[in-house]
Amino acid sequence: MIKAILIFNNHGKPRLSKFYEHFNEDIEQQIIRETFHLVSKRDENVCNFLEGGMLIGGSDYKLIYRHYATLYFVFCVDSSESELGILDLIQVFVETLDKCFENVCELDLIFHVDKVHHILAEMVMGGMVLETNMNEIITQVDLQNKMEKSELLLADKCSFA
Amino acid sequence: MALKIVKGSIDRMFDKNLQDLVRGIRNHKEDEAKYISTCIDEIKQELKQDNIAVKANAVCKLTYLQMLGYDVSWAAFNIVEVMSSSKFTYKRIGYLAASQCFHESTDVIMLTTNQIRKDLSSPNQYDTGVALTGLSCFVTPDLARDLANDIMTLMSHTKPYIRKKAVLIMYKVFLKYPESLRPAFPRLKEKLEDPDPGVQSAAVNVICELARRNPKNYLSLAPLFFKLMTSSTNNWVLIKIIKLFGALTPLEPRLGKKLIEPLTNLIHSTSAMSLLYECVNTVIAVLISLSSGMPNHSASIQLCVQKLRILIEDSDQNLKYLGLLAMSKILKTHPKSVQSHKDLILQCLDDKDESIRLRALDLLYGMVSKKNLMEIVKKLMLHVDKAEGTTYRDELLTKIIDICSQSNYQYITNFEWYISILVELTRLEGTRHGHLIASQMLDVAIRVKAIRVFAVAQMATLLDNAHMLTGNTQRNGICEVLYAAAWICGEFSEHLENPMETLEAMLRPKVATLPGHIQAVYVQNAAKLFATVLKSQEGNTDSTTAQEASQLMIDRLPLFVQSANLEVQERASCILQLVKYIQKLQQKDVEVSEEVCALFAGELNPVAPKAQKKVPIPDGLDLDAWINEPPSESESEDEQPKAIFSKEEPKHSRPRHTEVDEKELARRREARKQEQANNPFYIKASPSSQKVYQETPGVEHIPVVQIDLSVPLKVPGLPMSDQYVKLEEERRQKERAEKKKKDKKKRKEKRSGRGKKHDSGPESEEDITPAHMVDIVTEEMPENALPSDDDERDPADPHKALDIDLDNLESAGKRPLADSEKLPVRSHRAAEVLKSPAEDEEGENVSSLEPKKKSSKEKREKKKDKDKDRKKSKEEKKKKKHKHEEKEEADLLCGQADEPAFQSEETNEVVTPPTSTSADVSDLDFWLSNAPVPSNTQEAATVAAAEAAPAPGAISVTTPDSEPEEPKDTEMEETKSSKHKKKKQKREKEDKEKKKKKKHHHHHHHHGDKGGEESVQNGTVEEEEPLPPMSNYCLLAENSYIKVAYDIQGNLQDGSQVVVSVIFENKCDSFLKSMEFNVLDSLNSKLQRPEGSGPHDSLTIPFQLPPGVSNEARFVFTVQSIIMPQKLKGTLTFIVKNEESSTHEKLDFKLHFTCTSYLITTPCYSDAFAKLLESGDLKSSSIRLEGVNMPFHHLLARICFHHHFSVVERIDSCASMYSRSIQGHHVCLLVKISSQTVSVDAKCDEPTLLGNVLDEIKQTFSQC
């Protein structure tokens, strides 16, 4: 199970936070801060696994992260997930974002966090991996976006009719 | 209306959207909080508008603010509004917001039930998808219960996109509503073979997650997963399955054997590192599970270790990390294979990556030996000095202590060195583990008697330099060490060189700044020291020192008397008064030292941590029973213990108080006593807790080692453990030289004083003798301590509720779903007629306010093609159903459970064959017992799978899930009536099944060894007291080396075979090997020997027994006549091997084949039973048992368990029971009990057999 997915930048500013278990807002912020603290002090060429922080998880949980340019992608998972598998999943996630936003950069995530959420929802659901095939994910996301567009067009037409 | 919309959209143009909000926040870096608060005010305004687009926009912004840490729960209702928009765009925004901020205690969630249900059945797959995604994040027990059925329907949706989401969310539903697991499981299992890989993957995911927590319930799926593993190419699925197998193998070693080959093939063939790694991991799990049985898998271990070495040597740090992680798993069972890579692991200890260093540290645990412990610890100490973060340093500290103290200090040869390491560790700044060091100091000082002199000296210096530990407030954790130091100095004060000095150190004013519990120990031990000082001055004409000591105490103790800590205060004032009195006596020149010493006489022995838990409850003591009637509510107020300074209650105002009579007083006294007894701080007057004063002879006789005075007693601050390393080196060299001259045996004698465990060091460990004769005192355990399970599960674990037996579901109808187990289905209410869409929206609000009322207004427009699909699937289902119905009828008629095909014919009799569970097990057994040849395996797997295949379809007859299609039909009336009919049919069926279920329960009474517990679990004897544990194994033979117990069971498949399970338990300290088992065959009974061996050859037992280990072997015997009991003589030969010698030993035994052992537990239905009795072929006989003093259900359970009967029917104190012999004799019993007399009337077609069985039953009850 995946317990949480966090994206934050090099300064610890959250860009996306998805908790699959409820915490209240303060604790969530604390977790993000702590995770950032743990992850950011690690060198570039060390391993991508980190035994969990104090707040989230416990002994069964691990932080698995990747660092891309200005962003950290951190997954907090328990022992039922394959470590290397999750690393691949992060890669798929980032590649999908890249396809959906056309050369994704931090700004895309800043201004379109809702879209990132929708993409993520096609990959991970309730803490379990739903789909790992990038093409399938992109197809579903595109179809939903199309639907959204047609609805908006319709709405605009209605309102000005 | 139109105007409103126009107005709304114009408003919208001026509203901030999410992008504007983000931009705004970025532009207000200085006063971000202020800016956001104005934004929130705007959002509140927007939420008040009617326009849903505006609301959605506002909710979208709130979701962003939530991520930044703002509480947005106040907008929960608005979120629900947006969720219920008919537009996908807004719905998605609403569900996203809900998934981010709703949780179980959000109260508006209960308003959403109907909305979610509507979305789930929406014709638009993305509406459904979005609802499922959202629900997965905020599902509550109520939602799970109300929606379980809808989601289950979606598991068979035509679109794989919906199917996979529905399958995945079921896991969350199970967690919140465990009752749904049984009804949903067959369909979930079906999805494992879904044509869509995504759905399949989701199903694997869910089952793996379930199986991880309760693996035993999913063992029967092993063949199916095996098939998936060999056929799937999806690495995600493979990884999950392989992980699942890793969890299953510990439960079923045969599974492991089957897995090894395909897994090794995968290891060799795959290019995906992730898959390779998981394969290695599971192979390790397999090897661990096999390690007890057969040690001949060195090739696989080598392969694993070799692959892991490649991973560790890889430049990719991730692989290195994982390699070390997996290595630590091998370490537990095959330490030697890991030890050969010590170089690599020690190298990783220097890695720049902390994660890797930590993993390497874990491995060190298994790397140490007597030889290298000092060297490794020295290295770790260097790391401690260099370490930056406290976490890593603390980890190092615990690891050092762990590896040193492991298996009773096995590897420590020099305890002086260890004590000095501990003292050095006290210099660590800011560690959290002061108490750990302290407990080690205490443990070593108490248990290693020879080290006490040294330890006391060290502790005295520590106390003297206490300021170094307490000086820095940051180092607070470490002051725990002083607790140990003070206690050791006090308790073993006879070893102190200068007790007076230490006494002074312990009474310094600075001590008052320490935490209370440490001060208390200081005060108490100061008194002990004082006693020692007095004693040392005894007989000394000059009494000044003694008087000085008294004066010191009297001067310093008042400081502690003023302490705010009650414990300190009490002890100090007590001791102060005592010392004052002593001083008076001293002034009169009275010898007091002996009396004072008597206060602290006696030795404290270490007690095992679990000792308290293991004290057996004496017979006849019921801890749950009230000793006195509980005081009533109102009185309990009076009885409550009052806080010391609490206000006096105006008691006099209560008139009742004056009326208290004698009895009442006595009762209260009793209650108070009980309360005191439960209060750990109340010192009881029980005789056992008092110290017995006696001169302990033990202490004097311990050879006290002369400390080499070339080693200066050090002041903390200087590293000194290194010196011991050097000294130890020299000592070892000297010893080696000496040893050459010495006779080997002499050394043995010297070492024999130590516990057995300490001798078993690896390699040439034996060459190193400890520096001193170390007498490690073992921890005390209560007499006749019960072995108990240690790992109890956390009661709060949500997965506990999911520990549900699913096997019964698999084979048709054996323990079918009971009525109560079905998922709640919406019931249609006639009053609610279809509404026009306009009304609909209004109605929505109304109904959402009354969530409990189940509405049924959803109507679905079905596309034509969809309809077609449905029809098709329906037809298929019907076919299946039909097929199954036939099958079930057959089932009901002759009570035939589905047996593996190959034997169904011969068992086709009136009498029922074994139940489904055993059939299932034999299915699995059949699959597992296949030779592990790959082609064969594949076949077997498919056969097994094919056999299991009809099951999921079959169960749908009893589950409601075949129905939900119908309510959606537009013609309500028709549906209703047809439903009605169906229900009737169903009810009938269910009644029958319920009956069956009953029987099934009874059957559980006596299934295998677990009979006792299981019957309780299943709830048949809920109100009755639980059964005592029972075992069928009885002692075969025993001598000082080995204990052999056996149990005989009939073989179902062969009427002339019985299986004898024999447990061999090694009782001695030596290795038992080359065990051979032989029996002198009689004409009637013969031991089956492998082909080609003679009738007198013995069978080699395929395992060896290390000390303390037991293992089981099975032998098959052929018997001709089963009507008489029989005894066979036999011998067991084995070689006892220990370090110096190996001897050949022999043990004779008599194997007793009782007639009971030829009986097989066979359930029988009452109608079949009645027929049998009517047939008149049976001869009858009867016995009476007098003075049976046990509940009737215990009696029945005993007969069931020990004599392999099953209960057919039980009415009050009368029960009919049935069993069948391996050769098909029917044995029927009628058991009645009336006031301690049990009468057993029996019928059987073979009178001799019956007579013998009855005799055996009689014997069973005469024994208890």
What does this entry look like structurally?
The complex is a heterodimer of chains A (161) and B (1264). Chain A has helices spanning 25-40, 83-101, 106-111, 113-123, 134-160, and strands at 2-9, 14-19, 49-51, 62-68, 71-77, 124-125, 128-129. Chain A is built from five helices and seven strands, in the order ββαβββαααββα. Chain A is globular, with a radius of gyration of 17 Å. In chain A, the strands form two sheets. Chain A has a five-stranded antiparallel beta sheet with strand order 2-1-5-4-3, with helices on both faces. A two-stranded antiparallel ribbon of chain A has the order 6-7. Chain A is of the alpha+beta class. The longest helix of chain A has 27 residues, at 134-160. In chain A, a hairpin with a 2-residue loop joins strand 6 and strand 7 (128-129). Chain B has 51 helices and 15 strands. In chain B, helix 16 (273-290) packs antiparallel against helix 17 (298-313). Chain B has 1264 residues and is α+β, with helices and mostly antiparallel strands. In chain B, the strands form three sheets. In chain B, strands 10, 11, 12, 13, 14 and 15 form a six-stranded antiparallel beta sheet that branches. Chain B has a five-stranded antiparallel beta sheet with strand order 1-2-3-7-5, with no helix packed on it. A four-stranded antiparallel beta sheet of chain B has the order 6-4-8-9, with no helix packed on it. Classes of the chains: A alpha+beta (161), B alpha+beta (1264). Chains A and B meet through strand 2, helix 1, strand 3, helix 2 and helix 4 of A and helix 1, helix 2, helix 4, helix 6 and helix 8 of B.
Low-confidence stretches of chain B: 635-660, 682-719, 747-767, 810-814, 829-868, 883-919, 931-979, 993-1024
The value of Rg of chain A in angstroms is: 17 Å
Strand content of chain B: 5-15%
The helix count of chain B comes to: 51
**Largest interface between protein chains, with number of residues from each side:** A-B, 58 and 71 residues
Pfam family, one (chain B): AP3D1
Biased composition (Acidic residues) (chain B): 777-794
Biased composition (Basic residues) (chain B): 741-757, 854-863, 994-1008
Region (Disordered) (chain B): 622-694, 714-1027
